[in-house]
Design a protein that fits this description.
This protein is an alpha/beta fold. The chain contains nine helices and eight strands. Helix 2 packs across helix 3 and helix 4 packs parallel to helix 5. The structure holds adenosine-5'-diphosphate (ADP) and adenosine monophosphate.
């Protein structure tokens, strides 16, 4: 199965993608995680992306399309993939359509997780991420068993530098102007699975699986 997972920052894409990819035995790809890894490694691309990410701006389409194309051509994507955080603009969606057509890959669905904007600020400012495996936690809604430690790998948890109120508000504005139009784009292609993300994590997962006929 080849799927996209969409929704505003803080909707729960990363949280759901982790479990969903395991459940469906497909490869989980997050463009945000790829950029954070490039920053950690100090690559040229990482340095370039960092400037945009710290302000909550989108990294230029040409850069994101390039790394996604390269990632999708790797062998582990042949078993199916779940793409989180891409596309985020109509230009990226059109580029994805072209690259999948060239590769002979068909998209099976686009999961769209909806959460009211007023809930997202608290989700994002309370978010903590594992430095080692990228798993997402929340100080109130999804606490790790041991404070500051990842349940999955024991890694240290940290707060993303773009999860502060000023940057979050910019990210939410950009989502509404640049990314939200993709909902209609995929609805018109009959690919959209609308999911209520304002429910318990387990219920959101169950609804996603049901929408995929699982
Ligand atoms: P995204 O990848 O869409 O930006 P995350 O999956 O990282 O969002 O989730 C954002 C924050 O909200 C995290 O702190 C996460 O633990 C928390 N979260 C995710 N899903 C839910 C939910 N259904 N209810 C409450 N909090 C949630
Ligand atoms: P995320 O981890 O999905 O919240 O993404 C973190 C940041 O990475 C975003 O705020 C953007 O700066 C950048 N980014 C990730 N994916 C994309 C994309 N598809 N297009 C542009 N920028 C992106």
């Amino acid at each position: 199965m080849n799927l996209l997972i969409m929704g505003p920052p803080g909707a729960g894409k990363g949280t759901q993608a982790e479990t969903l990819a395991q459940e469906l035995q497909i490869t989980n790809i997050s463009t945000g995680d790829m950029f954070r890894e490039a920053i950690r490694q100090g690559t040229e691309m990482g340095k370039k992306a960092k400037e945009y990410m710290e302000m909550g701006e989108l990294v230029p389409d040409s850069v994101v399309v390039g790394i996604t194309r390269e990632r999708l051509s790797q062998p582990d994507c042949a078993r199916g993939f779940l793409l989180d955080g891409f596309p985020r603009t109509v230009v990226q969606a059109e580029a994805l359509e072209d690259m999948l057509e060239t590769m002979g890959i068909v998209l099976d669905g686009v999961i769209n997780i909806a959460v009211p904007r007023e809930k997202l600020l608290e989700r994002l400012t309370g978010r903590r991420i594992c430095r080692n495996c990228g798993a997402s936690y929340h100080l109130r809604y999804n606490k790790p068993e041991v404070e500051n430690k990842c349940d999955a790998c024991g890694g240290e948890l940290y707060q993303r530098s773009d999860d502060n109120e000023v940057v979050v508000n910019n990210r939410l504005d950009i989502y509404e102007s640049k990314t939200e139009p993709l909902i209609d784009y995929y609805a018109s292609r009959s690919l959209l699975k609308n999911i209520n993300g304002d429910q318990d994590i387990e219920k959101v997962l169950a609804d996603i699986l049901a929408s995929l006929g699982k």
